[in-house]
Amino acid sequence: MYGGRQFSTTDQGWIGWFCEQALIQKENKDHYFTISGNGKQVRDLLYSDDMVNLYVTAAENIEKLNGQAFNIGGGMKNSFSLLELLNFIESEIGIKLTYQKISKRESDQKVFVADYSKINNLLNWEPKISKEEGVKKMLAWVNKIKL
Asked: How large is the average pLDDT for residues 32-54?
């Protein structure tokens, strides 16, 4: 999950962190950053507004959900590899990013995409904000507060 007001670091909040690094590099061509592994790691993206919407909808339907566990995320249609994310950011901000590949993180999963079909079946919930729209919003927010 990601969105405005997420103050990201190298260890937490990968979408925001890479947006920040890209925007810094746009202003300072000598700035570079690192990525762990080959960049083919895949994650799904869930924008925070969609999660807030789910919380509200779940509270309104607590009798259907009481005592159950759910997988929540952006799903397959909202998944990006790290390389795909960086390519998208490049196209949005109009530069070619410079980064260095370092060793993969020991415990890094190659692919994680949440299957939210259970909550979808019960509440007809699914993310409304696409990965592209969400990353554009994140770039705008990071640009507003960081630069």
From this structure: 96
The whole-model pTM stands at: 0.92
Q: At 105, is the pLDDT very low, low, confident or very high (cuts 50, 70, 90)?
A: confident
**132 and 91 in contact (C-beta within 8 Å)?**
no
Beta bridge partners of 111: 42
Would you say residue 56 has pLDDT above 80?
A: yes
* HEC profile of the chain: CECCCCCCCCCCCHHHHHHHHHHHHHHCCCCCEEEECCCCCEEECCEHHHHHHHHHHHHHCHHHHCCCCCCCCCCHHHEEEHHHHHHHHHHHHCCCCCEEEECCCCCCCCEECCCCHHHHHHHCCCCCCCHHHHHHHHHHHHHHHHC
Q: Give the per-residue pLDDT at 10.
A: 77
Q: Give φ, ψ of 3 to 5 degrees.
A: 160, 180
Q: Which domains does the chain have, with CATH numbers?
A: 14-146 (3.40.50.720)
C-alpha span between 147 and 54 (Å, rounded): 32
